[in-house]
Amino acid sequence: DVKVTQSSRYLVKRTGEKVFLECVQDMDHENMFWYRQDPGLGLRLIYFSYDVKMKEKGDIPEGYSVSREKKERFSLILESASTNQTSMYLCASSSIVQGLEPQHFGDGTRLSIL
Amino acid sequence: DQQVKQNSPSLSVQEGRISILNCDYTNSMFDYFLWYKKYPAEGPTFLISISSIKDKNEDGRFTVFLNKSAKHLSLHIVPSQPGDSAVYFCAASEGSQGNLIFGKGTKLSVKP
């Protein structure tokens, strides 16, 4: 079974802080993704990565950056946290093999910015 | 502009009956569709998928129907169980490796 682990389930930070959200997957997946989920808005893609050291912007990258130094780890960074970044953050991974391989999600980090 | 729409924010069904969750899309290039289920405080879990070369895919109690001409897909759960109560997200992509575009979700409540 694929395991995607997010380092924190709940996190409370202050406005202006630099925040790191960590995600690790154990299935040697090439692709990794960061989403945020907000009520009434569904899941929105922030950033994704198809390989180590590679990153691509998703639909809402403003205020965020990412790091992928190792294949199994994908970090989301809030450079200077703001209250509108209070949200549920979800990490996902998937394989590039052919076929209908779905993305596998972690349990999420609920981040509150005060 | 929303490319994947789930127009019903919520749905309530009696246990044992059929649940039908609907999803519409606007991008004719989408050819891979998935349904995810999400319980509170957990990440979404993959439920079932369908590619555009099919019009139906079945897995146990779950069946997904795809109507390409109407750009519409639906998820049928028969029979519905209280444990099916969750938020269901429809997602679509161009190709099986394309980025997923999610709908806003439908909250299903199955009453005993």
Instruction: Give helix % range of chain B.
Output: under 10%
Helix content of chain A: under 10%
* Mean pLDDT rating of chain B: 94
The chain-level mean pLDDT of chain A equals 92
Task: For the record, give the distance between the C-alpha atoms at the N and C termini of chain B, rounded to a whole number.
Answer: 38 Å
Largest sheet of chain A: 7 strands, mixed
Largest two-chain interface: A-B, 29 and 23 residues
Class by SSE composition of chain B: mainly beta
List keywords for this structure.
heterodimer; A: 114 residues; mainly beta; B: mainly beta; six-stranded mixed beta sheet; five-stranded antiparallel beta sheet; 11 strands
Concise overview:
Chain A has 114 residues and is an all-beta fold. Chain A has strands at residues 4-6, 10-13, 19-25, 31-38, 42-49, 56-57, 64-70, 73-78, 87-94, 104-105, 109-113. Helix content of chain A is 0%, strand content 53%.
List the helices and strands and how they pair.
The complex is a heterodimer of chains A (114) and B (112).
Chain A: E1 4-6, E2 10-13, E3 19-25, E4 31-38, E5 42-49, E6 56-57, E7 64-70, E8 73-78, E9 87-94, E10 104-105, E11 109-113
Parallel strand pairs in A: 2-11
Antiparallel strand pairs in A: 1-3, 3-8, 4-5, 4-9, 5-6, 7-8, 9-10, 9-11
Chain B: E1 4-5, E2 10-14, E3 19-25, E4 32-38, E5 45-51, E6 56-59, E7 62-67, E8 72-77, E9 86-93, E10 101-102, E11 106-111
